[in-house]
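Why do we care about 3D structure at all? Because function follows from shape, and shape follows, mostly, from sequence. That is the central idea of this module. The next example makes it concrete: a single protein chain, its amino acid sequence, and then its structure expressed as tokens.
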Amino acid sequence: MSKDKSYIKYIYWIESEMEAILSAYLKEERGTKLKYPKGVMCLPLERRYKVGCVTPEVWSQKCMRQGTWYYHSSKKGKLLVVSSFQIPGFEDMLECIIKESGFRPPRFATDSEKKTLATNPVYTGLIPDGWNKVSPVEKKWFIRFAKRLGSRIDNFEYLYMTHNANHSNFIESHLFIEESGDKVPYSIDISAHLCSACLELFQVLGENYKKKYVTPCPGAVFFGGLEPDRFLEVESAK
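And the structure:
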């Protein structure tokens, strides 16, 4: 990410009937069209997206397995709006604010900690049908993406354990820092080893924490234009 302009995204979850109202406001008051990304949910994270609306069906397109978390969450059926500016009249629907951060984790998870996190019953009890059904083609993609981001890991099972452990850490945190007496969980490994950071960035997972520090996954790097290994601060608006 360029340092010349601070990166910020306002995350809204709206009911379908609010879509037309939002579109009209953007056109009349800001001269901006509401863009509708296709394929992957993380496209509106790009700087060039002034405001994007992710409709429910996008969660079942290229990232269908990851999207099963959305369909089993409190956000099911709602539209995700990712905006580079605050939207008047939609304050009650503002979910969180994403900003660039200089956060550096005190440490990453050990393999033993990853195993503990990935098998935590609190987490495994929430896993939706479909998440664990990884096709051979997808396994190859993840290994290829990891290597493109500098990893030497060529074992998908290790990556998958890390994916689960990372999500688990935002459900019942093991690795965290404390700020003002609150637990603040963070991503447990480098970008190359993660998956579906959109779930934490958009508050599908980890919505109960006031703040999180999230590292983009390969998808958010390659499709969302985020900087690998650069933590983002996700602060709840609720």
